[in-house]
Design a protein that fits this description.
Blueprint (H helix, E strand, L loop, with lengths): L1 H23 L5 E8 L2 E8 L5 H15 L7 H6 L8 H16 L9 H6 L12 H8 L7 E4 L3 E4 L9 H18 L5 E5 L2 E5 L9 E5 L12 E6 L3 E7 L4 E4 L2 E4 L14 E8 L2 H14 L1 H10 L4 E7 L5 E5 L7 E4 L4
Helix pairs in contact: 2-7, 4-8, 7-8, 8-9
């Protein structure tokens, strides 16, 4: 009788033992790596048995060596100086994507804007005295239609004085490169943040969904303000925010922001204070966040209506110093907390 009872209980004992083993199995720890790249800070949290900081920084260095105009030995610097250089796949991927987004946004996004960005004091060269004639002259060097990637091997410029600046897309691309590294190693839980451009996947260290904040667009050139306007809960997507509240200067009582409209040659003066975009990857989100700042609210909203693959959240200047908030319908599912939403 006891033997029969033991046989009957055996399956339950097996389930109990297996369940205990699974519970006791040690999970890989979460690690956080921090550093400095692309002129900004990065913070990367990931679950892994191995410390991958050296591999992470090696990948980021590849992006820097390809796309940073501040790196005199980078591919883009050689192109800007009209020097012979062998293009890598990082550069050609970003160039082709940038060209596509330039076409879609009618030039609101344009990596040939470098001469203007430099002249206004927000680029990789010293600013110059500007008047309307100088701006008009520099505009002749701007235009994504005036530069060509020939056979993915060589850049052809309509004017050798043209220069490229991928600052509005490179950070997002760096984020995606690290995400690809993690995915190739089977890492499922991570958050990658490079200067506010973010991608998240899986769960956070508490095994909850990742929550990412959107800062209030308070003038903050020292980047010390951490007051949040909205908290989003996102996963498996890229997110980027562009704003005119950190990189700016005042001259003769007028504020000049780093977002330059390639079509007019002047810093934008729209009501949008910050533009946040969620897309399938961070490179795409980064570029469109900038494009929307250039477009202005009405055009950006119209663009999003035609592109349901993008979600956007705009903080705009309102009356009496209040913020006005606008966001796409699909953004609602990401918002878990927000201030002053109507």
């Amino acid at each position: 009788m006891n033997k029969k009872k033991l046989i009957w209980q055996l399956p339950f004992l097996v389930v109990l033992i297996v369940g205990t083993v699974i519970i006791l199995k040690k999970q890989p720890p979460f690690r956080t790596d921090e550093g400095f790249i692309f002129g900004t800070v990065y913070k990367i949290t990931y679950q892994s048995d191995k410390d991958l900081k050296k591999e992470i920084e090696a990948e980021l260095k590849k992006v820097d060596n390809s796309l940073s105009p501040f790196n005199p030995n980078s591919i883009i610097s050689h192109i800007n100086h009209n020097e012979e250089v062998v293009l890598d796949t990082l550069f050609t991927h970003v160039f082709n994507l940038a060209h596509k987004i330039s076409e879609e946004t009618d030039g609101a996004f344009d990596i040939t804007v470098a001469p203007l960005t430099n002249a206004w004091g927000f680029g990789f060269k010293k600013s110059i005295p500007l008047d309307s004639l100088t701006v008009d002259s520099l505009k002749q060097l701007i235009g994504y239609q005036k530069i060509e990637l020939q056979n993915n091997e060589k850049i052809i410029k309509a004017d050798e004085r043209m220069m490229l600046d991928c600052s509005a897309i490179a950070k997002g691309f760096g984020v995606d490169i690290i995400a690809q590294l993690f995915n190739s190693k089977g890492i499922k839980n991570y958050m990658i943040d490079i200067g506010g451009e973010v991608i998240v996947n899986g769960k956070n260290p508490k095994m909850n969904a990742w929550r990412i904040g959107i800062n209030k667009p308070i003038d903050d050139s020292l980047s010390v303000n951490q007051e949040l306007q909205t908290i989003l809960e996102i996963s498996n997507v890229g997110m980027a925010t562009s704003g005119n509240y950190r990189n700016f200067y005042y001259k003769s009582g007028k504020k000049y922001s780093h977002t330059i409209d390639p079509r007019t040659g002047y810093p934008v003066q729209h009501s949008i204070l910050s533009s946040t975009v969620i897309a399938r990857d961070c490179t795409t989100a980064d570029a469109y966040a900038t494009a929307f700042m250039v477009m202005g609210l009405d055009n950006a909203k119209a663009f999003c209506a035609k592109h349901p693959e993008l979600e956007a959240y705009f903080i705009c200047s309102g009356e009496n110093g209040e913020y006005e908030i606008f966001f796409t319908e699909g953004m609602k599912k990401y918002i878990v907390h927000a201030n002053n939403l109507k």
